[in-house]
Specification:
Elements: H1 2-16, E1 49-61, E2 68-84, E3 87-103, E4 106-112, E5 116-125, E6 132-143, E7 150-162, E8 167-179, E9 185-199, E10 203-214, E11 217-232, E12 235-244, E13 252-261
Antiparallel strand pairs: 1-2, 1-13, 2-3, 3-4, 3-5, 5-6, 6-7, 7-8, 8-9, 9-10, 10-11, 11-12, 12-13
Length: 262
């Protein structure tokens, strides 16, 4: 487990430290893949970097058979660097994940490292367009101790459409190969849709919906509301609350974080 995570980090850092720009080049406008169900199809200029951090997230579910479960994640982090005018590399990891389950008088607690993943975002269309954006995001991941240790991977297709009066519509489909808690292999398809609006230069609000289906996987769907506030031109805060629609989704989710870009 440790060797695989170190290998992913070494690959990322070898590319991250490669200097492919001059200091006189124009810097990118703030881009963030947080905190909605969809990623931005846009990429940064070569040499630019950003940090996307999930400071805290909390999932809670109540079930009479499996018990009441609360999962908390602290220090979810993505380090991202622009490679070319339409490509960026991303390394993400979860520093600490805790899980509490209560079934009647029985209680259990577990904690460990979460997922580590290496992603490459390739912008197909839209870096220079203000109307439509499309990208491809292949990823390779390694799951940590809570759900066992295994490799997984996937491919995401984010699409963004700018609408009149500062409205926008974002969509993303993700095809993923992974394992469930019982270590059963499955192929899943996740679809996310986000409708939002910008309010001036600093505030953005949105509504979102996501569902997941696949082999050896029960159908799951959820919806939420969230927003982001740009404190500085290169720094923004975000907060999102999601609610489970199907019985397989968490009852509630709370996610808070920030994005810094330079």
């Amino acid at each position: 487990m440790i060797k695989t995570k170190i290998l992913l980090c070494v690959i990322f850092m070898s590319v991250f430290t490669f200097n492919s720009y001059s200091e006189t080049e124009k810097r990118s406008e703030l881009i963030s893949d947080r905190p909605s169900f969809t990623d931005s199809p846009k990429t940064m200029l070569p040499g630019d970097y950003r940090v996307e951090a999930g400071v805290y997230s909390r999932e809670s579910s109540r079930d009479q058979v499996e018990g009441d479960e609360i999962t908390q994640t602290f220090g979810q982090l993505f380090l991202i660097r622009g490679l070319t005018t339409n490509t960026e590399i991303q390394l993400g990891f979860e520093s600490l994940v805790t899980e509490r389950v209560k079934l009647g008088e029985n209680k259990s607690f577990d904690q460990g490292f979460g997922n580590t993943q290496l992603r490459l975002k390739y912008n197909v269309l839209g870096n220079d367009s203000k109307v439509v954006g499309i990208a491809l995001i292949p990823r390779l991941g390694y799951t940590g101790s809570l759900d066992g240790s295994y490799m997984d991977g996937g491919l995401s297709l984010p699409i963004s459409i700018s609408l009149p009066n500062d409205h926008f519509l974002n969509m993303m489909s993700t095809w993923e190969y992974a394992k469930d808690d019982a270590q059963n292999e499955f192929v899943a398809i996740t679809t996310g849709v986000v409708f939002g609006r910008g309010f001036g230069d600093h505030l953005t609000g949105f509504l979102q919906y996501s569902d997941e289906r696949g082999s050896h996987l029960d159908y799951s769907s959820k919806a939420g509301v969230g927003g982001a506030y740009k404190v500085l031109s290169n720094f923004q805060l975000d907060l999102t609350t999601n609610f489970g629609i199907s019985s397989q989704a968490p009852d509630t989710e709370l996610i808070a974080g920030f994005t810094y870009q330079n």
